[in-house]
Every structure is written in structure tokens, then in C-alpha cells.
Design a protein that fits this description.
This protein has 294 residues and is an all-alpha fold. It has 11 helices and no strands. 31% of the residues are buried.
Length: 294
């Protein structure tokens, strides 16, 4: 039997314990740094927005006068944009996920499609803005309207919905499908009555989180030329519009000229954070309410 020196073993154990403590301290410091920065940002935003958020701010139109400026146009534009993005991403995203998981034959073509979808999820958002400007705004001659912006944002978040829906469909136990087939159900009947209801919490959670990302994106719409001027309130998908993040961007840029615009931008950020918080809360409630364990 090979003799092991106790001192050597103790030294190795000591070095491993030190490395473990060092790694733990580094991870804790990184987490603490991120939380501190986040708290500072939240404090600055809420401090600058104090006294600016009221009923008039929510329901007034945009104005060059900071005292009379409101974000009703940006709120309506955001709602119209989501009215376009939500059905497109839900239908195309879930449909693509069903095809790839339930119908597509496993092989090079399926792997090629899957790889490209995964890569698209990491493409910078400004690239989708350039694509939307080229295809929707110019080639289809839509201009800077709600429909062009909605189609562009749908392309941006579509890969996220596809991947999330695929993961939700894969999580459905195989014995549920086999039981459905054993009772004489067809492929589509099994998907419609068994797979989709079981995977619905994961799918809806992915869709809502993707819509939360779409609400917070600015670069694609700036490339499209979405204005933040005194435009009429949008009444349909063919009207020009602006949204909350774009309004924050322009007010922040113009705060160098008019200091009060920084307060308006901070107040708009607070409203945007509340909207995102509500959407993420809905996603959590949906997941907890409909999630089943098999």
C-alpha cells in the first residue's frame, strides 16, 4: 500500500478550501455589485420622477412644454404594437415549435433549422431594425407605422418564443402521447388535446417574457424612424406611432437642452417598469396556476 503523507494531504485540503472560499467570495461580490448598481439606478429614477407622475402625465399628449407633456400617445402606441406582435409570435412561434418537435424528421435539415433559430436569438436587435426598414418600411412601402414596427419586433422575439415553446413541448411526458395513441387518437388530436394543454404554461410564460423584451426594445424602432414628436394618437395599425422606450430615448437625449426632460424620462421609465413588472407577474401566475406534475 502506498504511503500518503498526512502533511501533503492537509496542505492540498487547505488549498482547496481556500480556493472554495475565494470563489464563493468572488461570486458574492459580483452579485452584491450588481444589486448595488441596480438599487442606485432605481433610486435615481424614482427620485427624479417624484412629482411628475400624475393623471395629467398619463393622459396628456406629447408637448414641447415639460409641464404639460404626457405619454398617452406612447402608451397607446405600445398597446397597438403589442396587438400586432402578440398574435404573430404566438401563432408562428408555437406552430414552428410543434413542427420541429412533433412532425419534422430528425436529420440534417431539422438540425440546420434548429441551429439557425438558436443563432437568431443572439442576433443584435439593431440588425432586425435594418431588416424591418429594408423589407417592411421600404420594400412594402409601409413606412413608420404600427404594422411595420410590429412585424419587425415580431421577427426579433420569434426565436425566443420558438425555443421556449420547444422546451415546453419536450417537457410533456411521452407516456401521455402513447396513451392518446393507444386510445385511437390521431397525431393532430394528440397534439391538440394532450400536448398543447400540458405544455401551455411553459408556452405562455415564454410568450409573455418575449413580449416583455419587445416592449423594452428601442434600437429596431429607432432604425425604422419611429418619431417622438407631437403626432396624433394612433387609431390603427396603419397610423404613425411612438412607444414608451422610444420616448425615454428622445427625452433623455434632449435633456441636455431642457433639464426637465430628464424628469419626464425618469417618470416614463417608472411607468415602463410597472408594465414590465405586471407582465412578468402574469407569466409567473400562469405558470403556477396551470402547471401540472406528472
Amino acid at each position: 500500500m502506498k504511503y500518503v503523507d498526512a502533511a501533503v494531504v492537509q496542505k492540498k485540503m487547505g488549498s482547496r478550501l481556500f480556493a472554495n472560499k475565494f470563489a464563493k467570495s468572488m461570486f458574492f461580490a459580483s452579485t452584491l455589485f450588481g444589486l448595488v448598481v441596480l438599487l442606485i439606478l432605481i433610486y435615481r429614477v424614482f427620485a427624479q420622477s417624484m412629482g411628475w407622475i400624475d393623471v395629467d402625465f398619463l393622459f396628456n399628449k406629447l408637448s414641447t412644454d415639460p409641464e404639460n407633456a404626457g405619454i398617452m400617445g406612447a402608451i397607446l402606441g405600445t398597446l397597438w404594437l403589442m396587438a400586432v406582435v402578440a398574435p404573430i409570435t404566438l401563432v408562428l412561434g408555437v406552430g414552428t415549435a410543434i413542427y420541429l418537435e412533433e412532425y419534422a424528421r430528425k436529420g440534417r435539415v431539422q438540425r440546420f433549422i434548429q441551429t439557425n433559430i438558436t443563432n437568431l436569438a443572439g442576433v443584435p436587435s439593431v440588425v432586425f431594425g435594418i431588416l424591418g426598414l429594408t423589407v417592411f418600411a421600404r420594400a412594402l412601402d409601409l413606412g413608420s407605422v404600427v404594422l411595420a414596427g410590429g412585424l419587425t419586433m415580431a421577427l426579433l422575439v420569434l426565436p425566443v418564443v420558438v425555443v421556449a415553446s420547444q422546451e415546453a413541448i419536450r417537457a410533456v411526458p411521452q407516456f401521455l402521447r402513447e396513451a392518446s395513441f393507444g386510445m385511437g387518437a390521431t397525431k393532430w388530436q394528440t397534439i391538440k388535446n394532450v400536448v398543447l394543454p400540458a405544455s401551455l404554461p411553459g408556452i405562455l410564460t415564454g410568450v409573455i417574457l418575449a413580449l416583455s423584451r419587445a416592449i423594452g426594445e428601442t434600437a429596431p424602432l429607432v432604425v425604422l424612424g419611429i418619431p417622438a414628436l407631437l403626432i396624433p394618437l394612433p387609431d390603427g395599425v396603419f397610423d404613425r406611432f411612438t412607444i414608451l422606450p422610444v420616448q425615454v430615448y428622445y427625452w433623455t437625449t434632449d435633456s441636455a437642452l431642457v433639464a426637465e426632460y430628464a424628469n419626464l424620462a425618469a417618470a416614463t421609465i417608472v411607468i415602463l417598469l410597472l408594465v414590465l413588472f405586471l407582465m412578468n407577474s402574469v407569466a409567473i401566475l400562469i405558470r403556477n396556476k396551470f402547471q401540472k406534475r406528472y
